[in-house]
Amino acid sequence: MVSCSRLSSTVENIAHCWKIGYHSQVFFGPCAHQMDLMFMKVLVTGTAGFIGFHVANYLLARGDEVVGLDSINDYYDVNLKYGRLDAAGIARGEIREGALVQSTTQQGYRFVQMKLEDREGLEALFAAEQFDAVCNLAAQAGVRYSLENPRAYIDANISGFMNILECCRYFDVKNLSFASSSSVYGLNESMPFSTSHNVDHPISLYAATKKSNELMAHTYAHLYGLQVTGLRFFTVYGPWGRPDMAPFLFTSAAFEGREIKVFNHGKMKRDFTYIDDIVEGVVRVIDKPAQPNASWRGASPDPSSSSAAYKIYNIGNNQPEALMDFIQAIENAAGREIPKQFLPIQPGDVPATFADVDELVADMGYKPATPLQEGINRFVAWYRDFYRVGRD
To answer: Is residue 206 among the annotated active site residues?
Structure first.
């Protein structure tokens, strides 16, 4: 049973998370049973990033202890990264590379600035903290940037992920979940994208590193008994979102009166997935680590599972939206039209994404369902508040 003092702290954390934008479904899904069971100590990497920030706050709200980790690199505006940390009680002035910083607002949260490539630093952290679970959301992100700076992806996404796997192996952390990407589907044109599909034809180095992560994770599940789950995210958007992604770019253009570039002449479709839906799926996976598939056979192997404790899921809205409809939703929320320049498709882009989430529903009892306009309204409201714009 939960002690009175720990329960009181949990309630305070829930109230805090309401302030930063979470909604009711976050607290009343299958994870609510954690209130009556043992709490976990979880390492969440990428907590200065978009998804990691939200996942850490979700776990804290229900009473788990979280150590957040992020390199705080300058791939995009670091002020937004520090803003996320500040919202979680981690003051910018207190952050020192390699040093754990205690949150001033959440008793169960500490943060360390560290690169995944820092093998010795990670080993020391694992040895000291003895984590129950690891959720690896840190990575060098971005499809287009991988064409410009490929080595950054090898360092963070390959070498860094190898360090996570090794630390889980040697410090006996069996429960590992990690971010993959819908980009791994590459040249596949069979819709909706299923985890049973072949993903051997990526069209960006970013996608290739994510596919590599899945292969590496399976190897460690097979050899060392790790329970590993990979999550292929589909175009995530919402409050505190990344400024290099379309929702942010289009919204900033709307309020600044700038023209946006619309690629493939607008003939694109994306399975836009609201952040709360992503987080709910991530936490359900943390709570239900992968198990061996007893029916798996090497003669006809299912790519998404194994005789080892390994599983891959899609997390998407299961309802692709036309790019022009998405832009219209932003225009509706912002109350202004956005000038558009129509251009050919860019290298590394795919014309459409569409997630098959049947296995997520079957195994986790959960399906993302936030309507596009509702999610966009929440994002634009956050954007107005954070950047103090569009108040006319």
So the answer is: yes
